[in-house]
Amino acid sequence: EQLDQDVADIYNLMIFDDVTYKVIQKDGMNVLKITTTPSWDVNGQIKFAIGFEDNFDGHSDYSVKLEYIKFGLNSYAGEWRSRFTFGQENLLMTELYQPIDPYGYLYVRPAAFYRNKKVYVSPSILINHTIETDLDETFTMQAKEYGGILGVGVNVTKELHLEVGGVVKRVNPSADFLVEDNSSLQYVTLSPQASVYNIYADLEYDDLDNAFFPRSGYRAKLLYRYSDQFKGDESTFSQYLIDVAGAYTFGRHTFSPRLKAGSTFDTENFSNSQDFTSYFTLGGLFNLSGLPTNAVTGNNIALGVLVYRYRLSDDGFFGSLTMPLYAGMSVESGSAWYSSDLLLNGTDSFSTDRLLYSGSAYIAADTILGPFYLGVGTTEFDYYSFYFSLGQSF
Questions:
Q1: How high does pLDDT run on average in the chain?
Q2: Beta-carbon neighbour count of residue 322 at 10 Å?
Q3: pLDDT in tens, 130-162
Q4: Closest CA to 308 of 244, 256, 258, 260
Q5: HSE (side-chain half, CA atoms, 13 Å) at 146
Q6: Which stretches in the chain have pLDDT values below 70?
Q7: How far apart are CA 308 and CA 326, in angstroms?
Q8: How many whole angstroms separate alpha carbon 362 and alpha carbon 376?
Q9: Which of 76, 237, 358, 375 could form a disulfide with 362 if both were Cys (CB 3.0 to 4.6 A apart)?
């Protein structure tokens, strides 16, 4: 059993197309012989994903994602990873994942990135530091940033890893306004800039039996982050995020609960922070379905989700392809809100009055191109969205 698992781990390095073993007799001894077939695709692997969402009321978003991975850079199985996404979020990122011991327990991860992410915020956040309860009052902001990352990690087991590191970046959020000045309308762009460094610790456990349609297992993430805006208006804060999910299957029925909570604390001049990509956001399929991606923004977050999935067929579309076909639904509740030092007349304590309630219905398939989803979601106050996606999430 252990040998089977070890051979599977070698195969999962993505360096070989095939890994087999057998025990032979030689000079009266049992000798283990492992045979590997080098990968035909020596240039690496390309992953992709496309997505589209529409709220039936003039808002639509799309996303296209590409990832290139070059495996086996050296004898310690280093990997070069590059990601490119455009649409709702524009991202260009390249990184080196380099184990520093022959068993892959310890690694370093240097990276460089550029990101331009669309988030929805309330105009009053910028004016008098309050937040509107009506989501229709929000507007879009482009949270732009670029910089570098250095992470150092340890793979404690195949399921558990810990990484600590730092990020240094230049942030430049921007928003467009049409303002009235002396009875005339003027087009104004708000575009502050600042320099930020983050220190983080990320602990993750994952033993789900499938990355996209798990039948059993658990996944848990605990993140701590400290942010210091050292150039521009000074601002510091700390954050934690807890994200736990699981999968339970009974015959053809699978239930996947998820709980997510995050908070910002030890803030100093948080209202000066331009690090909008560090804000927590909700919106999108299974993430307050019915709302656009990143529609709800805050420095605190709470979310509870239960996704139900029924396996319609083992053979896929009408028995023609060996791709399992599913149908399901979800119920969701959560919100994001701002801390008290941003509020002139509010509180940062959690209250059920803050919660939004959502649900979705969908069909899905585990295709050779990655997971396929076609769904519709709704959130109270008559928010609806249609979702289509194909490809691997990363």
A1: 86
A2: 11
A3: 444 455 566 788 889 999 999 999 999 989 999
A4: 256
A5: 4
A6: 40-43, 58, 122-138, 314-322, 339-351, 393-394
A7: 10
A8: 6
A9: 375
Q: Give me the helices (H) in 110-156, please.
A: 123-127
Q: pLDDT by residue (tens digit) across 6-24?
A: 888 888 877 888 899 999 9
Give Cβ neighbours of residue 393 (< 8 Å, ≥ 6 apart): 49, 212, 370, 371
DSSP character at residue 320? S
Residue in 393, 385, 394, 392 with CA at minimum distance from that of residue 52:
385
Closest Cα to residue 205, out of 236, 237, 246?
246
Please say whether the beta carbons of 27 and 357 come within 8 A.
Answer: no
Distances from the Cα of 362 to the Cα of 21, 133, 353, 387, 391, angstroms: 43, 28, 28, 9, 16
Q: What is the pLDDT of residues 66-98, one digit of tens each?
A: 999 998 888 898 999 999 999 889 999 999 999
pLDDT at residue 349, rounded to an integer: 59
Q: Compute CA distances 144 → 48, 52, 92, 230, 303, whole Å.
A: 23, 22, 12, 17, 26
Q: Three-class SS of residue 251?
A: coil
Q: How far apart are CA 157 and CA 161, in angstroms?
A: 7
Spatial separation of the C-alpha atoms in residues 150 and 229, rounded to whole Å: 18
- Which residues, other chains included, contact 182 with Cβ-Cβ below 8 Å and sequence gap of 6+? none
Give, in degrees to the nearest 5, the angle at Cα 365 between 361 and 366: 140
Written as six digits, the tokens of 266 are 């030890």
Six token digits for residue 328: 């399901």
**Count of Cβ atoms closer than 10 Å to residue 74 Cβ:** 9
Please give the structure tokens belonging to residue 132.
């509107």
- pTM of the predicted protein model: 0.85
- Taking alpha carbons only, the member of 167, 166, 171 closest to residue 142 is 171
Cα–Cα distance for residue pair 124/95, rounded to 1 Å: 38
